[in-house]
Task: structure prediction
Amino acid sequence: MNHTSHPVVRQAPFPFPGERFPRDLGAVVQRTVAEGRMPALVVIHDSEGDWLIGDGVNDPNLPDASGVYCIACMTEDDPSISETASLQPGFAAYRDGPGLPWTIEPFSYGGDEG
Ligand SMILES: [Zn+2]
Result:
């Protein structure tokens, strides 16, 4: 996966036009997903408007486990990620594997997962 380096922004007006991720919108992405080693199985749109994408398996809070990546570029590699572009703030989308439907659930920090 070759991410051309370009500036990313951390916030964009929501809802997004056409329910597509705007160009240059960045998300906090687990490197396992950004580097194509794991599929994206969790997409979080937190109540502050930040987007987080994870593999749903590994701990995204470990040092250097995550970085900021452009969501639109990621959807070129995995178009199914774009299905979560209409996710409301404070919600997360989960799926059990690539190509499976997303399940939307309320999301907040602080609670134990799972
Ligand atoms: Zn991009």
DSSP finds two helices and six strands in the chain. The mean pLDDT is 92.
